[in-house]
Amino acid sequence: MNMQVTLRRSILLGLLATLIGSFGTRQLSASEKDAKADGRAAQYRRVVDKAVEYLRLQGQSADGAFSGKVGTGPTALVINGLLSVGVSDKDPMIEKAIQFILSNVRNDGGIYAESSRHHNYDTCIALAALAKANKQGRFDKQIKAATAYLIKIQWDADEGKDPSDTFYGGSGYDSKGRPDLSNTSFLIETLREAENEAENDADREAIQASIQAAMIFVSRCQNLEGPMNTTPNAAKVNDGGFYYTAAGEGESKAGADNATGGLRSYGSMTYAGLKSMIYAGVDRNDYRVKAAVEFLRKNYAVDVNPGMGKSGLFYYYHTMAKALEAFGETEFKDAQGLSHNWKNELLDKLAAQQQSNGSWVNSDPRWMEGDPNLVTGYGLLALAMCKP
Q1: Of 192, 157, 191, 178, nearest to 221 (Cα)?
Q2: Is the four-CA dihedral 258, 263, 268, 274 of positive or negative sign?
Q3: Does the pLDDT at position 31 exceed 50?
Q4: Picking from 29-33, 55-59, 263-267, which range would have the lowest pLDDT averaged per residue?
């Protein structure tokens, strides 16, 4: 008799739990889903419009530049951000900014200020901006010349480096600078844009050869021992994440790992590595992609740049958004099995951090993130991937 009572009680408790669970997981009606989507769209538009208004009214100088005293980089980044969120290339703000970029086109094909020490970096971002605005082939000449310039200064046989050298395939801030993953990831992304604008098969083949050479360098910046990475640091940490550069003895902006002596992986460089692999055509089932994604699942965050805290936070946001958009999972599951709608989470985070004037600025000014123009450019590039 006691067993029957216990059995009935268990069945009733089970039914009760099922009913409670069904209430907790009630599916939204079509009208509720529409209302929620409308709210997201309104939030997105509000945040974007405030940022655009800031750049239009407070960010741009009379010569068309955004923070032009430090070169063409911030202006080109802002142009990329504005065009990515739907501002017309015919907008006077864009036109003025593009004229500033064009005034810095050099005889060697590069696009950089005379005083700049960031020839590769500035040219990469400027080329991407021109490619986005290249309606009716307006900037074909500049894009072709800048593409040839970027390929020429990439570390390879012309610089006395063969594929066994840790410099090989990489790009630094300029033609003499040590290559790093950040600049090389910009190079791959930019060449991908340039390939779409290429006039003939020979140009496309040269671009692809450059991208594949860059992937040799990128693979060596991953903490992952394997056929593509036999450098001394590869097996020390071996967590699948990426660090700043494998060139020479290597360097991580997150420092060395005390236990192994290896170079610590961190969030922004791992997203840069993942983005680069996808843009270069590496299959998502490749062991390098799988290892990078596993690291990112273990270190998913929108509050900090994992391994770096607040340093480079907005660079992290824009790289994260581009990488996850390319990876193709709107719901990104972390290592604990929790599913994140990263677009909504990032949109909420950017909305909460936006200044009253519409700009963004990082409380940690490292890597120029105290400059609201540069940081607002990063913010728009991230938002472009979060559109509801």
Answers
A1: 178
A2: negative
A3: no
A4: 29-33
